[in-house]
Structures are given as structure tokens and as C-alpha cells.
Write a structure and sequence with these properties.
4-stranded antiparallel sheet, 33% strand, single chain, two-stranded antiparallel ribbon, alpha+beta
Length: 130
């Protein structure tokens, strides 16, 4: 990838982070999150990578992960709705699978997926003096 493409990609990522806001703004009840992801590909050796994200109130609330398959365009794994749904229902743990919907001439559909496990910690409610 040439320098111009890389710089444009990094600028877009920066803009996406800023647009998403901070976890503390978007999810004020959350004190932290940990998301474990295992990346898979359609290949003889399907395991591609294992990754753990530690997310703090000061982190950006941008939960779209890039597809790691070279040549994939417009793909990735968007955990935004997963996180938002868990917070809305006050769930502490969730897990599932997401398939990349990106495309490229040489890639077959369902060329990559992740299995995720998310754990969310919530701030303790203040004790009332009644």
C-alpha cells in the first residue's frame, strides 16, 4: 500500500473515531469492557488471529474492526450494535459470530469471520441514604 493510501485510511479511521464519540459519552453507565475476538478465514489453516480489546470510558466508542484478509474491500466486523444492545439490556456478557460482508474478485463469500466474547462492567449505582 502506498503512503497516500495509508494516510487516507488513517485519516478516515481518525474521523470515524471522533464521530463515534467516547464510551463515557455514548454509554455513561459503562466503567469498562473487554472484547475477545478470534479471527477465522476460509483456508487450510482457518485460525488467523486472536485479539483482546480493553475498552475504557476514555476510549472511542468505535467498534468496527477491519477484515484482515488482503484484498477485502468494504468488509470488516461491526460490533457496535452488539455493544449497544448489551448496554441497553444491561447484559454483562455476550458472545457470537460475525461474518465479513466485504468483497473482492478473488475472495469467496464468507471468506472471514470472528467469534467474539464481550464482557461489560457497569458503574455501581450510588447508595441511597433512606
Amino acid at each position: 500500500m502506498n503512503r497516500h493510501d495509508y494516510a487516507a485510511k488513517m485519516e478516515l479511521k481518525k474521523q470515524n473515531n471522533i464521530a463515534a464519540g467516547l464510551v463515557s459519552e455514548r454509554f455513561p453507565a459503562v466503567s469498562g469492557m473487554v472484547i475477545h475476538m478470534t479471527y477465522y478465514r476460509k483456508a487450510a489453516i482457518p485460525l488467523l488471529m486472536v485479539r483482546t480489546l480493553n475498552i475504557f470510558p476514555s476510549s472511542f466508542a468505535y467498534f468496527k474492526m477491519d477484515c484482515m484478509i488482503k484484498g477485502c474491500s468494504g468488509g470488516g466486523f461491526d460490533l457496535t450494535s452488539v455493544v449497544a444492545g448489551m448496554v441497553k439490556s444491561k447484559k454483562k456478557e455476550g458472545k457470537g459470530t460475525i461474518t465479513c460482508c466485504g468483497q473482492a474478485d478473488v475472495l469467496e463469500p464468507n471468506h472471514a469471520s470472528i467469534q467474539y466474547e464481550a464482557a461489560i462492567r457497569y458503574k455501581k449505582a450510588p447508595k441511597s441514604n433512606s
